[in-house]
Design brief:
Layout: H1 13-26, H2 34-41, H3 45-57, E1 61-64, E2 69-72, H4 74-85, H5 88-104, E3 107-114, E4 117-124, E5 139-141, H6 146-154, H7 157-163, H8 181-194, E6 197-200, E7 207-215, E8 221-230, H9 237-254
Antiparallel strand pairs: 1-2, 3-4, 3-8, 4-5, 6-7, 7-8
């Protein structure tokens, strides 16, 4: 019987090239031109255009025609969310959140992007604190949640425009929060300036949150950590933001982040 371990397996060039393109886009700070991809990967430009068109049909990439650039699409976010749902990130994040709750004495949660939503994958509750809506498996609009705002602020601006091209892209829960692209840009500008995101009644009236992004080894927003508390409790939001930031940095180290 032949030794199958040494047999040469058939190559699938298109699959190999497609995965190389996706991996290349993942490492970029923002959308790039097709010619740049072709040059970096040593592929014919016609091949790159053909594969990008196929990826676009399946929402793994988006085309920004005004800039003649390509970036990761919603399906790429969902793929990342699938990884998170298979537990590695949740397992690494759970002890970090438990320690955060011990220090903050408030509820904390870990979320990942899922299209224009955030998906909560870990929740740790503090004793005698009201239960938030952000239970494990719950999805909430990213532009309203502190976790979502923290991750959106870490994305390239072109990527945010692709996710929120017009007013129809914005869901509403309590009548608060950005409802148009320009309003979202202002919110994210504040997040970048302050180093953390805030939320006050946009998801649940009477509840506030602070959120901090967790970056992977490429600097991409892999997740976000948030702390939530009742609006009338007189809690120091700045102190909670510092605790959430420390927890985010700890989780970054655990996942081999930047």
């Amino acid at each position: 019987m032949p030794d199958t371990s040494t047999q040469i397996k058939p190559k699938v060039p298109a699959a190999d090239q497609t995965l190389r393109i996706l991996a290349h886009l993942t490492r970029q700070r923002g959308p790039v031109q097709a010619q740049t991809i072709a040059t970096a990967l040593g592929l014919p430009r016609s091949t790159v255009y053909h594969l990008l068109a196929t990826l676009e049909r399946h929402a793994f990439v988006v085309h920004l025609p005004e800039e003649r650039r390509w970036g990761l699409g919603i399906a790429a976010f969902e793929l990342a969310g699938g990884y998170s749902r298979q537990e590695p990130l949740a397992r690494l994040g759970r002890p970090v959140l438990a320690d955060l709750v011990d220090r903050a004495h408030e509820n904390a949660h870990l979320a990942v992007m899922h299209g224009r939503d955030v998906l909560y994958i870990v929740e740790e509750r503090a004793p005698r604190r009201p239960a938030p809506v952000s239970d494990v498996g719950v999805r909430l609009p990213a532009h309203l949640a502190a976790t979502g705002r923290a991750m959106l602020a870490a994305l390239p601006r072109e990527q945010v425009r692709a996710l929120y091209p017009d007013a129809a892209s914005f869901a509403d829960r309590t009548g608060r929060g950005p409802a148009r692209p320009g309003e979202l840009r202002e919110v994210l500008r504040t997040v970048r300036a302050e180093g953390h995101a805030t939320e006050d009644g946009e998801v649940t009236l009477g509840m506030r949150s602070v959120g901090v992004v967790v970056r992977d080894h490429t600097g991409w927003p892999a997740a976000a950590i948030a702390v939530t508390w009742p609006s009338d409790s007189g809690v120091d939001a700045g102190a909670l933001a510092d605790l959430a930031r420390a927890a985010a940095h700890q989780l970054e180290r655990r996942i081999g982040g930047a």
